[in-house]
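Why do we bother with holo predictions? Because pocket geometry can differ from the apo form. Keep that in mind while you read this record for zinc ion.
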Amino acid sequence: MAAIEVATGVWRIPTAPADFINSYLIEGDDGSLTLVDAGMKGAPKKLLAALAELGKSPGDVTHLLLSHAHNDHTGGAAKIKEATGSAVQTHEREAVYIREGRMPNVDRSTFGGRLLARLPGKAKGFAKVGVDDTFEDGDVLPMAGGIQVVHTPGHTPGHCSFLHTSSGVLITGDAIFNVRGFSYSFASSCTDVRLSRESAARLGELDFDVAGFTHGAHVSTGARAAVRAFLHGRAG
Ligand SMILES: [Zn+2]
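The structure, written out:
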């Protein structure tokens, strides 16, 4: 299956082997679709195949929400926007990077961060994407009955998680990974490592039934308790 239903009308679409990178598709009552993240450069082929498998057409995707400007989330965005005609939205602090096709600076206080910072710009970039609208913390986007924006900065300045209230699905973005257990994102990929850990704590305060990760499989049983245990240092 190219698309895995995690709740009614919400699908996780893995775009890399072993669930390593996921996008999410959320359906509204009118059948319109909101896509969260567009994977790496080659992901659009998989995303479009998943749409076909669900009996949908590219034109049904009306919105593309981008959690942050890293090329494993935005690499396919330009192609998806072109193929679907969807309106691209991201946090107001992330828009500049997405429009310019570059990733925010990494935290040079880590060894890996210093190494990454020395990579040529091209290695860190992605195809520029037109951003149609920006959002900020606390906004409830009107798609699919309401998608709440939860700003979880630190991984990048405008990194966001998303809560789809009606299905009870939380999409953590890179605030928390679920690759071989829960973890925080790689310190070397963060703009501000400490802030990324602090802001992830916000997710434990939310009400949700399913935890969807952009890296790793979703959790649909005891998700909130498991996320809270991780955030409080009792697991992971
Ligand atoms: Zn990232």
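The mean pLDDT is 94.
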